[in-house]
Design goal:
This protein has 706 residues and is an alpha/beta fold. Helices cover 41% and strands 18% of the residues.
């Protein structure tokens, strides 16, 4: 079957007169959405702004315009460290061009940099580190995890029994909230309902403790769930949408009124990819020379990227593409969560062809004209495709979308009047194309019930702090008003959560509560890794973490003694206790498997009875059917937060629309079972799965209960 191909028209963004009071660098102009965002953030009647401009249209400038032209202290949050690093470079560039008179200091804060800052400056706690950094950073770039933990009171002092003493609950969040008048959430659409609930709880806490600043969300697809919560709890929000306002056009436009933000792109859909995890990898191997390398030889000075779903696939391809490209003096480099800090930074600048995963598909600004990518959802497709065509200077822009053949059939062959469809060889504007992708993709569950079931656990802890004597004295009506807004938004009484939480704690199941209070979930199955696969990597960068299921499926490794790993880490200047104290085990990474290992989780107990419980639980005695015994021994001794279903994993994924990266795996009570009849989900995924299936009867009863 021949491939399908289409052409994407260029995109032009409408520019507007510069608002009074804004001085731009020479020859700069503002897009409509940038000006409207500035105006909305200046409007005292608006609390929250959603900017839905297309990728490449300068949403970052919209976020920092107030801090560059006035004195608006800004805290901006990014979902990945790579994006935060990219944006730090961008903001420093803005500062150099705008030359703001108050000379804002810019700092990038991650969990690792916070620990380093505390250690380097010999501070007593992370709390002191955050206080010092906010005192000296007018612009702070961080992640929403740290924002969450600040507003869940996690940086307060406590004794050895984890009992807080001395600090009022508002000691840290009040310091942060008083300083920063703009909180920016970039690429927030990559998050799911647990993170939406977390951010909403924090915003509501800020609202009822006197915060007077603004919130800005930058996302091409804003969360309807979050917008609903905000509306029902009294936040006044506005959406800046250039599409609905006619602020984009797709034909050659007057340069005085329109600015080109995307180049025309030739997009190819290979039509023979089967719906399995290996098909994209196989296509790249088969076409490495005839398509990928040939493009670079036909168009010298090109730059490209390959974005895949699997880290193992990235490194297996690296071994095949690097020698092929090296023959022509072309450089191929990786960028994944397993790539060391120094090599990751170098890859953005030095690579002719960059191969990566989700670390590079979220917002990072590449100057490329060639792209090959996989996608796990419509939003993921649009996100990754948006990396291409953002910069002028190349003679041609081409992409290959490696998606399963049944999705391509929906895009090109199904003629559904309600859905946008494509025709081979035609030309389309970006708005029509994005709608066609969304219409054709499979449903992915948004877990709307999570906020009421588990997000309200966070709500309870916020409300409970607001009820305490010191907080009541400072914020007399905060607890009552917070309780009312939570009920209006989530349709749940925070008071009703007390009994359930207390019973859970009395049963020594605090790990379940900790999971519900986390931002992205805990790392129960993370292993400490010493990576020997890259001989050029600095010693310090060889120390990493990675989850056990991914290791078992894709990597060749051996177990390391904890003391041996500790000595190596400390010799490289890494604190084992600080970084790896919760690791399941220590492993030395040797190589990547050519074929995925077939394995499953195993439990010797009565799994049918465990599944019949129908609730999140803490399970001991879990093992795996591959790998060294030391791994199963470590796993068996650990109490794991999980949810067990008596449906097979593929059945659950299909029926419930579970995301591709959802942590659900096969489980059996027999180690030699070739088709595990149960599914086990871990951590935050366990909480999510429970919200969908708690009302089901066991499979041996009467099927699905609605």
């Amino acid at each position: 079957m021949s491939d399908y191909s289409i052409t994407l028209k260029p995109v032009y963004s409408r520019t507007v007169p510069i608002p009074i009071g804004i001085n731009l660098p020479d020859e700069w102009s503002l897009s409509w959405h940038q000006s409207e965002t500035f105006n909305a953030l200046s409007d005292p009647q608006i609390d929250v702004v959603f900017n839905t401009a297309m990728t490449g249209d300068g949403k970052s400038l919209a976020a920092y315009l107030q801090s560059m032209t006035g004195k608006t202290y800004t805290l901006a949050m990014y979902p990945t460290n790579e994006l935060a690093r990219d944006q730090e470079r961008q903001v420093q560039d803005y500062k150099g061009k705008f030359q703001p008179k108050y000379d804002p200091q810019i700092f990038r804060l991650t969990g690792a940099t916070l620990e380093d800052f505390v250690e380097t400056n010999q501070l007593s706690s992370k709390q002191q580190g955050i206080v010092n950094l906010t005192d000296n950073s007018e612009i702070l770039l961080t992640n929403p995890d740290i924002f969450h933990y600040i507003h869940q009171f996690r940086y307060l002092r406590s004794d050895s029994n984890n009992t807080r003493w001395g600090d009022n609950a508002d000691k840290v969040f009040r310091k942060v909230d008083d300083l920063y008048k703009l909180f920016v959430f970039d690429e927030f659409h990559v998050f799911s309902s647990p993170q939406i609930a977390s951010v909403f709880n924090a915003m509501l806490l800020m609202k009822h403790t006197g915060y007077k600043g603004k919130f800005l969300f930058l996302s091409a697809t804003p969360s309807e769930l979050l917008q609903g919560f905000l509306s029902r709890s009294g936040f006044k929000h506005r959406e800046i949408n250039p599409v609905t306002e006619g602020a984009y056009c797709f034909t050659q436009a007057d340069e005085k009124c329109w600015r080109q933000i995307s180049q025309p792109i030739a997009l190819v859909f290979p039509n023979d990819l089967q719906p399995n995890a290996r098909s994209g990898y196989d296509w790249i191997v088969e076409n490495a020379e005839s398509i990928i390398l040939k493009f670079f030889l036909d168009y010298p000075d090109s730059k490209g990227a390959i974005i895949l779903n699997s880290i193992a696939a990235v490194y297996k391809l690296l071994g095949k593409l690097q020698p092929l490209f090296k023959q022509h003096n072309l450089t191929v480099l990786p960028n994944t969560s397993l790539t060391g800090e120094s090599e990751r930074a170098r890859s953005i600048i030095d690579a002719d062809l960059l191969i990566g995963t989700s670390t590079i598909d979220v917002g990072v600004d590449f100057k490329i004209n060639f792209l090959v990518f996989e996608a796990s959802s419509a939003a993921n497709f649009i996100q990754r495709f948006g990396r291409l065509g953002r910069h002028q200077g190349f003679p041609i822009y081409r992409a290959y979308a490696l998606i399963p053949n049944f999705l391509i059939s929906r895009l090109f062959e199904d003629k559904n009047e309600k859905a946008a469809s494509l025709a081979d060889g035609d030309e389309y504007d970006r708005v029509f194309f994005n709608n066609a992708i969304r219409d054709s993709w499979l449903f992915v569950n948004q877990f709307e019930g999570y906020s009421k079931r588990w997000g309200s656990v966070q709500s309870f802890y916020v409300w409970n702090e607001l009820r305490k004597k010191q907080m009541q004295a400072a914020y007399p009506d905060a607890a009552k008003n917070f309780e009312t807004d939570i009920f209006n938004a989530l349709q749940v009484s925070v008071r009703s959560r007390y009994g359930e939480i207390n019973r859970c704690l009395e049963a020594k199941q605090h790990k379940i509560i900790d999971e519900a209070r986390s931002f992205r979930g805990s790392s129960q199955l993370d292993c400490a890794i010493y990576d020997t696969t890259n001989s050029n990597e600095p010693e310090r960068d060889r120390f990493k973490t990675y989850n056990l299921p991914g290791l078992l499926s894709n990597f060749i490794f051996e177990v390391m003694d904890n003391d041996e790993f500790r000595l190596k880490a400390e010799k490289a200047g890494i604190s084992f206790t600080r970084r790896y104290k919760d690791a399941l085990c220590c492993l030395q990474l040797r190589d990547y498997r050519e074929m995925r290992e077939n394995w499953h989780f195993y439990h010797a107990g009565n799994v049918s009875e465990l599944a019949r419980i129908g609730k999140v639980q803490i399970l001991r005695g879990l093992e795996v059917t591959t790998g060294e015994n030391a791994i199963s021994n470590a796993l068996c001794q650990r109490g794991i937060v999980c949810y067990i279903s008596d449906r097979r994993r593929d059945e659950l994924r299909a029926k419930l629309g579970l995301p591709m990266q959802f942590q659900a795996y096969g489980l059996s009570d027999r180690p030699d079972d070739r088709d595990p009849p149960y599914t086990i989900a871990f951590g935050q995924s366990a909480l999510l799965l429970e919200t969908l299936t708690w009302h089901w009867k066991p499979k041996e009863d009467e099927g699905w209960i609605c």
